Structures are given as structure tokens and as C-alpha cells.
Amino acid sequence: MNGKAICEEEYDGYPASKAFGQGVCYTYDDVIFLPGHIYFPAHEVDLKTKITKNISLRTPLVSSPMDTVTESDMALAMAMVGGMGFLHYNMTTEEQVAHVKKVKLHRPGFCLDPVVMTPTACVADLDSLRMRKNMGSAIITDTGALGGKLLGIVCTRDYDLVKDRSTLLSDVMTTEVITLADSCTFEDATSLLKRTKKGKIPVVDEAGRVTGLATRAMLKQFASLPEPGPPSTDAAGRLRVGAAVGTRDADKARVAALARAGLDAVILDSSQGDSTYQIAMIKHIKAAHPELDVIAGNVVTAAQAQRLIEAGADGLRVGMGSGSICTTQEVCAVGRGQATAVYKVAARAAKFGVPIIADGGIQNSGNIVKALALGASTVMCGSMFAGTTEAPGDYFYENGVRLKRYRGMGSLEAMSKGSDTRYLSDPNHLKVAQGVAGSVKDKGSCLKMVPYLIHGVKQGFQDLGSNSLTEAHKMTASGTILMETRSGSAQKEGGVHDMHSYEKKLW
After folding, report:
1. pLDDT class for 85, splitting at 50, 70, 90?
2. Among this protein's residues, is 422 annotated catalytic?
3. How far is CA 231 from CA 48, 106, 117, 236, 238, in A?
4. Is the peptide bond before 298 cis (omega within 30 degrees of 0)?
5. Rounded to the nearest 5 degrees, what angle is found at the Cα of 291, between the Cα atoms of 289 and 293?
6. Which residues on adjacent β-strands are paired with residue 378?
């Protein structure tokens, strides 16, 4: 420390510079930090950070641009808890733009995605919806979509005793509907729901077009959730949202459309980002859309990072083959242990003031602590958020367990939808999978999960003796935070062991 060689008789443990300088790459589980001195309570730990040179976040967590992880519902939830979501691009430009607009137009406290149907739909359609999404009510508009003129509302009591399930919704809907004005606040909605004792109240504009929905269920949900804190917002007070794009010429038009919709940051999505294609795209975006921050990657070495930073990247995404559904290291024999990758890239990027995102390998709050303390400014989660209420897709049951689909963007399933562009492949060539598809258990809402994860991270920082993320980075760079690598037995001992049976309840 302070330029002096470490004396093994004087110090326990090693600084990161020595631990990661042995010619061996390590994952998060391979390393363990040694505790520091506690002089502050855990709740005082300040995790404010930057995801790019120009965008700050209160919560250092972001959701991955995977088609089974992040669409507008996830992006909304992540922004609400102080983080940020990145929309996947296995969809058309128009669909991706619509998701951006949905986030930007959202008002906290109202239903994120109300069910809207036409009057010609039938009761059987609601039965199907109830089976797939556990939703049995719908707003009825002339177009069957938000923005259509309100015609009525259908709740379970309107049709639960109807024997003929082919009955049209127009025959059972309630047409005399109490509504809220488009200019209402969450407090206005809360007051009216309590006063009228209604379960759902549509929000309409002056022309009677539906713009949202206030529900008693959402009030009860908010009351049961931890306090989310201030959301992530732009200069205009709108929620922050990012999106992934490729590096082909056609993606330039996609970027332009996303920028017009108000996108805050774009991720150039590639499993190996150190390429002439990505460098050219960075330069194009910075010239054509200077207001749009560009996150480049993925990278795992300092040399890769340097090239992308010199091209103009505002942030870097770090990780290659460390995700739970990724097989890149197995198939291509290229990548790096995630703990080593984060430390090495962060050390180089810090010299240029460029934040990095630790992408992949996150299984618990301890992994988040390690990623942040090793130099990451934010942590990107895929499998952690897959299976949550906000993740795309419908729940299904298998052997009595409630599940959702989860797949890598390098899986054959995802590549058939267009994600093969992130592997710099000609669509006419053979496709070789670099990921798998599967399912994960229902994890509940991110609005509940993230506050608990973050408090676990704060407790970890307290044990390290660091009262902020900025301080942790300084301590790692100076060698104040010490660590050791763990043997297989030490890793086993650090987890639950010698139990006949137990329930691992995280919160």
C-alpha cells in the first residue's frame, strides 16, 4: 500500500493488484474479501453511481437486454427502484420504440400494463387470460388497446355466473364507469378508490380515450412493498430507459428512431465488442446523436476496453461467457473469469473516467458486493430478474412449480428471432448456439426483490468498512481492501452445509 511492497508478516490477505496478478482468472466465488473496520450503520452506505459518464443512478443495478428479461414492464420497475432497464432488440424497431415511449409516458403509481379488449371479444377470452396471467378483468375500448375510446369495464362478477362462455363482452360489461382525469395524481387516484370502494378506475383524457388504470390491488401491493426511494429520471422528470441495438447498417435507423423517442442510453449488444464494426457504430452514434450515451462491449481485457474508450464509448459492459445460460467459453474457448475481468477492465477504464457494468455471473447480493468493490459502477442482472412478475412471458406450471421461460440470447431459440447479429454472423450461415434455453421459478416482483438485494449490498459494504461505492473504489485501488482466493473446501464451508434439511429464505 502507498507504493510499498506487501509484507506477508505484517498484513493478512492481499490487495486486488496481487490477487489478480497471478496468471489465473477468478470468478466471484473464487475470491473473498477480508473485513474492515465498521464505523457507520449499514443504512448510511451511499451506493449512488454512474452507468455512463453522463447518467447517474441511485441504485447500482440494471436489467439485461434479453428477450426473457427486459421489456417495458421490467424497465419501468427498475427505474422505479432507482436503477435502469435495457430493452432487448429481438423485436422490430417499431416495437422497441413503443416500449421506450411506454416507459417515458408512465406515471408512477398507475397500472403498468392494463388489459384492454374489444367489445367483440368473448368471456372465453377472459378465461384464457385468467389462466395465463391470473388477470380476470379488462377495460373495453373501441380499438381494444390503450388510446381507444372507453366503452366499459368487465370484472369477474360480471361474468363468473355466465354459462355460455362464447357470450360477447359487450353483453356483460358495465357501461356506467367512474373515471379519473388524465391529469390526476397518484394521491387523487388513491382517494377516489377509497371513497368509491371500486376495485379499478380507468384513467381517460378529455376525449374519453383510455390512458391508464388505477387499481385497488396496486394500492395494496405498494403498501406491502419496501419503500422504493426516488426513481431514476431524466432532466424532464421522465423515467430513465436504455435499449440494445446491433452494429449493422440497418441499426443506424433503429438508433435514430429510439433517440427521437427519448432513449437515454444505447447498448451495442455483442458477445465480443472489440471489433471494427462496433468502433464504427460508436463513432456514428456520437456524431449523429451526441445527446445519446453509448455503452460499448462486451469486453474482458484492458486492451479491448482501451480501443472502445478511444472510439468514444461513454460506458463499458464487461463479461464474456459468465452468464448462467451462456456457453461462449465452452463453445469458443474465449472469455475470462468474471471477477478478474471486472477488476482488470475497471482499472483501465477508471483512468479515463468511464464507468463499467459488470454483466453476468450474479447469483446473490454477495456477488454484487464483489463486482462493485472490484471496480464496477453498476451490475447487470439477467437470471436474477428472470422469472419475476415484470419479466416478459407467461407463467406456466411444471410438476406443480410456477415457472417462466428464460433463455440466453445466444440460444438457437433467441437467434431464430434475430439475436444472431450480436455474434457478428451472416444470417445465411450456419448457426452455432452460444447459450441455452430453459425455465426459472417465479420470483415475485422486482419492486420487492431489489430493495432487499440493495440492503444486503449495504451490509456487505459495512463489513468492508466502506461507506460508499466511491470510497470502495478508492480503497480497492489503494490496496486498503484486502482479499484472498478460496479453495473448493472454503467455498463449501462459506455456504450452508451439514444440514439434513433447510429452507433458504432470503427475505
Report:
1. very high
2. yes
3. 12, 12, 31, 13, 9
4. yes
5. 90
6. 357
Place of cell 472489440: 274
Amino acid identity of residue 62, one-letter, is V
Backbone angles phi, psi at 21, to 5 degrees: -115, 25
Q: How confident is the model at residue 229 (pLDDT cuts 50, 70, 90)?
A: confident
Q: Are 357 and 379 in contact (CB under 8 A)?
A: yes
Number of H helices and E strands in the chain, helices first, is 17, 21
Convert 421-432 to b/e letters by CB count within 10 Å (16 or more is b): bbbeeeeeeeee
Identified catalytic residue from 122, 184, 307, 326: 326
Residues 129-138, mean pLDDT to the nearest whole number: 79
pLDDT in tens, 407-459: 877 666 666 666 556 555 555 566 666 667 788 899 999 999 999 999 999 99
C-alpha distances out from residue 437 to 89, 227, 406, 433, Å:
17, 34, 6, 10
d(CA 24, CA 229): 40
pTM given for the model = 0.83
Name which of 67, 75, 81, 62 is nearest 112 in CA terms: 75
DSSP structural state of residue 5:
P
